[in-house]
Design brief:
Helices cover 55% and strands 4% of the residues. By secondary structure, the chain is mainly α. Bound molecules: carboxymethyl coenzyme *A.
Length: 372
């Protein structure tokens, strides 16, 4: 199936209307996050994302999503420690990652490994709120480790244990690259994680909630979410953005490249959104990060400048703004992450939102079962 398909076109038969893509359908009540598409705002637990970005850490926002408010200093320290302590993976799971075919997509490995983790979780069959909160923390801790381990396994490098003295963002970069990251890289990774942590009733969160609504366990719900995030219309867009950037040699080629895409009816990856009618507020922060990371670049190709030109052209020709996935691509590139891993980094952050939504679904559940 082509990646460029789909037209809206609701179908009305008598009194029944099929809302294609459930556009505008309110499917759940949540106080975890709110996307204000008209004003281009995002709120996590009532906090505007612009007030969180650059001020809080990803770990503080993960705590916010799970516990309902930002942590005190002591609560933040405890949560960070608790999470870092849960980052190690069972050795059998690491072995499983080692025997995965080297060409398999990291998102497919991540989905399989997370699914397998349920078999090793001591509380797999306990669906009580307290147990589910502990499982949420374990998954928030383990997904970054899976991503980093897989990166090193693919390069035939030995896997690294997390460093208990550094935060999650620093640990991800450290466990991937094998050296302590620079401060500006830690800040950029931390902000990227913070910005991706939750986003209303997006497709993967909805998938997680549908699975949770059957009283299936948390690992099952997260596995559904990872499968859904992979698609190029959702989190998989960030990887496609980098593929596009690599096809464009310099800023002067951008207009012709985009014109050709639009003439063929293709979608420019990292642009457009179902809910936002204005700029995705997360793009503003990622654009800044990207610009900062490429400022002193000695590389022969400045991906930030090309991205910025694409943004101007797409806005002028289609009136469409970049979404979170657009500048996430160049930020991750600058942090040394290969493009096939971009969506796994998205998952390493969104796990905090998914688990918060799964807990909320369990707490006030009714089977999600629409008609057709
Ligand atoms: N490039 C070119 N045209 C676009 C794009 C795009 N990226 N996005 C929307 N359009 C056009 C589309 O062709 C259609 O035009 P027309 O009515 O003339 O046919 C119109 O805008 C409406 O499109 P739609 O498909 O009905 O809108 P939607 O709400 O179903 O799609 C979307 C939302 C995100 C799937 C879409 O904008 C898209 O395919 N974007 C590219 C993929 C992407 O970046 N996905 C990441 C989404 S946000 C972050 C995340 O969840 O990971």
């Amino acid at each position: 199936m082509s990646e460029n398909f789909e037209k809206t076109g609701n179908i009305k038969t008598g009194d029944t209307e099929v809302i294609r893509g459930l556009e505008g359908v309110v499917a759940a009540e949540t106080d975890i996050s709110y996307v204000d598409g008209v004003n281009g705002d995002l709120y996590d637990k009532g906090y505007n994302i612009h007030d969180l970005a650059g001020v809080c850490t990803y770990m503080e926002v993960a705590y916010l999503l799970l516990h309902g408010d930002l942590p005190t200093k002591a609560e933040g320290r405890t949560f960070r420690q608790q999470t870092i302590n849960e980052m190690r993976l069972p050795s059998q799971v690491v072995k499983m990652m080692e025997i995965m075919p080297p060409h398999s997509h990291p998102m497919d490995v991540l989905r399989t490994v997370v699914s397998s983790l349920s078999n090793f979780d001591p509380e797999c069959d306990d669906n009580s709120p307290a147990s589910n909160k502990r499982k949420a923390i374990r998954l928030i801790a383990q997904i970054p480790t899976i991503v980093a381990h897989l990166y090193r396994i693919r390069r035939r490098e030995s896997i690294l244990s997390p460093d208990p003295h550094i935060n999650m963002a620093a640990n991800i970069l450290y466990m991937i690259n094998g050296k302590m990251p620079a401060e500006d890289h830690i800040r950029a990774m931390d902000q990227l994680l913070l910005l991706h942590a939750d986003h209303g009733m997006n497709a993967s969160t909805f998938a997680a909630r549908v699975t949770a609504s059957t009283h299936a366990d948390m690992h099952a719900a997260v596995t559904s979410a990872i499968g859904t995030l992979k698609g190029p219309l959702h989190g998989g867009a960030n990887e496609r953005v980098m593929k596009m950037l690599k096809e464009i040699n310099n800023v002067d080629e951008v207009e012709e490249y985009i014109d050709s895409m639009l003439a063929q009816g293709l979608r420019v990856m990292g642009f457009g959104h179902r809910v936002y009618k204005k700029e995705d507020p997360r793009a503003r922060h990622l654009r800044k990060s990207s610009e900062m990371l490429f400022k002193d670049t000695s590389a022969d190709k400045n991906f930030f400048s090309i991205s910025h030109r694409i943004e101007d052209i797409v806005l002028a020709k289609k009136g469409i703004y970049p979404n979170v996935d657009f500048y996430s691509a160049t930020v991750q590139h600058a942090l040394g992450i290969p493009e096939e891993f971009y969506t796994t980094i998205f998952a390493a952050s969104r796990i905090s939102g998914w688990t918060a939504h799964i807990l909320e679904q369990y707490a006030n559940n009714r089977l999600i079962r629409p008609t057709s």
